[in-house]
Amino acid sequence: MADTKILPGVKRWSVGDITLTVLNDGWFQGSLDLITGISKDEAGALQRAGFRTQEPRVMLNAFLLTGPGRKPVLIDSGYGSFGPPTMGRVPAALAVAGVAPEAIETVLVTHCHPDHIGGLVVDGKAAYPNAEIVLHSDEAAYWLPDAALAAAPDGAKPYFENARKALAPYAARVREQSGGEVLPGITAVHLPGHTPGHCGFRIVSGDKSLLVFTDVVHLPAIQFKQPEAGVGFDVDGDQARATRKAILADLAADGTRIAGSHLEFPAVGTVSRDGDGYRFVPDLWVADEA
Amino acid sequence: MADTKILPGVKRWSVGDITLTVLNDGWFQGSLDLITGISKDEAGALQRAGFRTQEPRVMLNAFLLTGPGRKPVLIDSGYGSFGPPTMGRVPAALAVAGVAPEAIETVLVTHCHPDHIGGLVVDGKAAYPNAEIVLHSDEAAYWLPDAALAAAPDGAKPYFENARKALAPYAARVREQSGGEVLPGITAVHLPGHTPGHCGFRIVSGDKSLLVFTDVVHLPAIQFKQPEAGVGFDVDGDQARATRKAILADLAADGTRIAGSHLEFPAVGTVSRDGDGYRFVPDLWVADEA
Q1: What are the residues whose beta carbons fall under 8 Å from the beta carbon of B41, sequence distance 6 or more?
Q2: A9 touches chain B (CB under 8 A)
Q3: What are the structural domains, with CATH classification, of chain B?
Q4: At A287, phi and psi to the nearest 5?
C-alpha cells in the first residue's frame, strides 16, 4: 500500500563537479535530559519556539560523494543494525541513488559513535567490501586499543565494543589521517570535543565548496540559537562547546555552505546570525540540481 | 547514470487519518520584475537575506490526499505540458506515491492558472479519466465563458485559452463550489485576489488540521517577511495583498499548519512572527511520518 511503504530520503546537491547526496538514515527519539550547558527549561522553550516536539527527535544522515573520474565515497554509514527500527536506512537510500555497496571505494568516518559507523558491518561482515576506511588518528587511539576498552567505565563499554565491532572487518584497510587532504578535493577538518578525533570534511570543486560539519549540532532548534547547549554524548563537553562556537562564528561570517549529520533532511544550507545566536537556512530544494 | 536521473520530490505528511502527499512539479525561473507592491531593490535584498538567488526561482507542488475509506484526491495537477521542461513532474511523483491516475476520484482545483491545471490534460484527453473537478464558482465565471475570452486583452488571452483547454475533457463533470465542505473533512476556503475564485483547502481529521493555502505566497523569501509584496500574476493585487495579510496574521496567531503550492519542497510547516513580518518554519522531515 502506498501509505505503508516508506519513501526514501535521498537528495542530491551540487558542489561544483562533485555531487553530494544526502542519505537519510532515519531518526531516534531523544530527550531534553540529553542537553548539557543550558537548563532543560531553556532547551524546551527553544524546541517550542522552533515548532518542534518537546522531547526532541534526533535526525541522522550519511553522505555519498560522486563525480567525474571519482569512485563513490561515503561519509559515515548510518546506524545499521546497532540502532532502533526507525533507523538503518542508508542502504535503501544508497540503492535509490543508484550506487552498489561494492562500488564504494572509501568510507570517510567522521567519528566512532555507533550511529555513524554501525552501518559498516552486517552480520560481522563488511557492508562495503571494497572500501578503505579513513579515520582520524585521535579517534582510532581513543576507541580501538584493548587498553581503552579495559579502562572504559562499564556504562561506556558498549560504545567501545561497537566501535571495534564495526571496524573489525576492515582491519587491514583502515587509513589513519591527521587532518588535511584525504582524497582529491576532500579535506579533513578536525573538530574535536564531541569525540577526540571528530572530523568534518571540506569538499572543494572549482570555486564551490561545502563543509560537512557532522556532529557540531545535534539538535538544530536548540544549538544554532544557543551554541552553549551540548549533548550528553560529547566526550569533552567544554571542548565541543568551544569548537561549536568557533565554527558557527566562522560559518556565519563567511557564508560557507554546510551539511550536517543531524541536520533535518535534506540537511544542506547556510548559517546566519540571528540575534545573539544563529539560524540555519536550508538551501532551496530543486529536484534536478545535480 | 545515478547523477543524471532526477530523483522525485514526494513527501508524505500525516493530518490525523489523512495523508497529505506533496508532489513536486518542478520549478520555473522567475524574476524580480514580477514583484509588485515593494521596490525591486527591497525584493532583491530579501532574496539575498534568505540565501536565495537574486532572480527568484518559483517552486511548484501539487498535493495528494489519501486515507482509510477515501478514494485518492488531488489538489491541482502541476503545469503538465503547458510549462517549461523543468516542470510537469506530478505524474512521476504520483507514480512513486503508488497511485494510478485512474484511481483519482476528485481534483480540487485551487484556481485556473496554467501551473495548477495544465497537468489535467494530456494530448487533449483527461489525465485523470475518472476524476470529478471541483472549482469555485467565481473561478469558473471568470475564466470559462466565451464572453470572458472575447473580452480579455490580447496578452491575457492565452491564460483564458489554457484554462478552457485544461478543463474541456472534464466538461460533464465539473462541480462548482462556493466555499464550505467539498468532501468529507475537506473545506474550501475562499482566498480571493490572486484570482477571483482562488481557494485554499482546510483538511481536518480528528483533532488535527492543515490548511493548503496555495498561492497566498509565491516567493517565500520575500512575501513572508514582507506581505506587501505581490506578484504580477495577481488578478487583483490589492485584494490579494489584503487576503495575504489577513491570513498570515491568523496563521501566526493560531499556529495552523500549512502547505503551499509555491512553498519550497517539502512545503509543509508553520508561520511564525518575525519582526514586522513573518517567517515560515518547515515541519520536521521524518521519513515514515505517514
Answers
A1: none
A2: yes
A3: 10-282 (3.60.15.10)
A4: -55, -45
Q: Distance (Å) from the C-alpha of residue A164 to the closest C-alpha of chain B?
A: 30
Residue of B7, B52, B86 with shortest CB distance to A11: B7
For Cα atoms A209, A215, A217, give the angle at the middle one, nearest 5 degrees: 90
Look-up of cell digits 530543486: A286
Percent of residues, chain B, with pLDDT higher than 70: 97
Name the 3-class secondary structure at A62.
strand
Which DSSP category does B26 fall into? E
Q: Are B108 and B181 in contact (CB under 8 A)?
A: no
Q: What kind and span of H or E run contains B174? A: strand B174-177
Q: HSE, CB side, 13 Å, CA atoms: give it for residue A168.
A: 14
Q: Which of B11, B52, B270 sits opposite A51 (nearest CB)?
A: B270
* Interface ipTM above 0.95: no
Q: Which of A107, A124, A230 is nearest to A173 (CA)?
A: A107
Average pLDDT, 10 consecutive residues per value, chain A (290 residues): 66 96 96 97 97 96 97 98 95 95 98 98 97 98 98 96 98 96 98 98 98 98 98 97 98 97 97 96 81
User: Does A29 lie at the interface with B, CB-CB under 8 angstroms?
Assistant: no
With cut-offs at 50, 70 and 90, classify the pLDDT of residue B5: low
Strands A186-190 and A199-205, sheet pairing: antiparallel
pLDDT of A25: 97
Indicate the residue of A52, A270, A287 with minimum beta-carbon distance to B26.
A287
